[in-house]
Amino acid sequence: MSLRKKFDAKGVYVFVMTPFKTSTDARGRHPVDLNGVEGNVRSFSSVSGEKTMVLCGGSGEIDSLSPGEIVDVSAAAVAGASGRCKVVCGVRGPNPTAVKIARGVEDAGADALLVMPHAPIVKKGDAAIWDRHRQIAKAVDLGFLPFRAPTQTLSIDLVKRFSKLPQVAAIKEESGAVDWVRTGCHVTGNAIPFITGGGENMVPYYYLAGAVGFTTGMANLTLPLSIKLHNASLAGRWKQAMTLRDEFEPLTEMRQVLGNSMLKAGLEMMGLAGGPIRATGQRLDRSDRAKVRRLLRAKGIL
After folding, report:
1. Which of 70, 32, 33, 36 lies closest to 54, judged by CA?
2. DSSP state, 115?
3. How far is Cα 119 from Cα 262, in angstroms, rounded to an integer?
4. Cα 65 → chain centroid
5. Where are the domains of the chain?
């Protein structure tokens, strides 16, 4: 069985927040809360439905994590999931670093990798991007997801090449290009799944274009509702999907104002681990926490 078929890309991809402790170490950094990672993933993985945990993505503050911390977070997530759902972990940095992280994540027991863009490689164009993914493919026996982002707009020609590489489990699109997803599905004969970003607000449009899964930071707080949206969209129940999509608008608007600190505060209100944003130490003040609490209560989350 190919890694792509084995992975089975359908579902909600929770971009799990990385919890940090409020204390600081000798370097003034907030340590990763590995027990919090395991506990949060244990909670999410117990929710019924098609879902995948993505650790060390953008919402997971991958740029603030060392290669060793990324591997440790992956291992904690695998322990928390305990086989109830798939675990994907981000890899970053220049190719040798990305390969080193990928091997560590494979040893930790993750199911696949999310290959984050690396600016110096992106500047060199498709050939360098292809070589980056080929190096990772040769180094590990895991599937992986190339990442189309505003900073790395994968060409359709590159998508065709990826569709023939069995280690590519799916392609993640997060540039807002709905038509690009449709074109990708068409030119590859639906040979490769597309997982899309933009949160819940974009799901019905992307699924109509052919996507089979979506990534979301909001699902740290809303996973059962996010799964309902996935199910409705995958089944083509568009009226229901649009109604569910509209439920997320006030949550999305609040996150745009408060940032990822909103999600971390919400996790804490749910009895899970959140903590500060590592790079800034930011946490919501009392007034903003009250706003988050009121909205989460209104949505039936608390």
Report:
1. 70
2. E
3. 28
4. 16
5. 3-298
Q: pLDDT digits over 156-167, tens only? A: 999 999 999 989
Per-residue HEC secondary structure of 2-60 comes to CHHHHHCCCEEEEECCCCECCCCCCCCCCCECHHHHHHHHHHHHCCCCCEEEEECCCCC
| pLDDT, tens digit (0-9, with 9 covering 90-100), for 17-66 | 999 999 999 888 999 999 999 999 999 999 999 999 999 999 999 999 99
Packed helices 238-247 and 219-234: angle between N→C axes, nearest 10 degrees: 170
- CATH, range 3-298: 3.20.20.70
pLDDT (tens digit, 9 = 90+) per residue, 203-253? 999 999 999 999 999 999 999 999 999 999 999 999 999 999 999 999 999
Distance, in Å, from the CA atom of 296 to the CA atom of 86, rounded to the nearest integer, reads 27
pLDDT at 1: 52
Rounded to two decimals, the pTM is 0.96
3-state secondary structure 167-229: CECCEEECCCCHHHHHHHHHHCCCCCCEEECCCHHHHHHHHHHCCCEEEECCHHHHHHHHHHH
What integer is the mean pLDDT of 200-204? 97
